[in-house]
Amino acid sequence: MMIALLMLVQSASPAPSALPSGAILEAQARRGVLMRLDGAAAQSVEACISACDLTPNCQAWTYHQPETARAARCDLHPIAGPSHFDPGAITGLSPALAARIEAGAERAPSLRERRALSPEDAPEAPPRSEELAGG
User: Fold this and answer.
1) pLDDT for 67 beyond 60
2) Helix, strand, coil percent content, the chain, rounded in steps of 5
3) Most exposed among 27, 48, 73, 134, judged by the fewest C-beta atoms under 10 Å?
């Protein structure tokens, strides 16, 4: 299974620019690793994104750039939790999660949402009493 995943990663690499703005954060990392990959998935940010896209339950990824003390690494995360500062990392949402967020942002508001946003349908505030309460 792992060999097949690595072969697919090498052949299918979506460009990071294909993800919506804000889906990739530089100098940030996430905690809670589903799977830690090296080898083909750690070759580039694009390969890490592809590995996440091909892995069930992957909601986010973090690519750790190679340093003198360690090799490059790709971490896949089961949830897109908060990120924290890490100068040698790049993190982002899975392409599937980013697409769902974009689709939700582009849908038309529901009737309930339109009513909440419409000022003419807003209930009137109760009249204010000129007297102070209790006295």
Assistant:
1) yes
2) 35, 25, 40
3) 134
pLDDT band at 134 (very low <50, low <70, confident <90, very high): low
Residue 65 covered by a domain: yes
What amino acid occupies position 3?
Answer: I
Residue 5: helix, strand or coil by DSSP? helix
Q: Are 58 and 65 in contact (CB under 8 A)?
A: no
Count of the separate structural domains present in the chain: 1
Alpha helices (H) along the chain: 2-11, 45-54, 95-106, 111-117
Highest mean pLDDT among 14-18, 37-41, 58-62: 58-62
For the CA atoms of 91, 94, 98, 104, the dihedral, rounded to the nearest 10 degrees, stands at -130
For residue 33, the domain's CATH number is 3.50.4.10
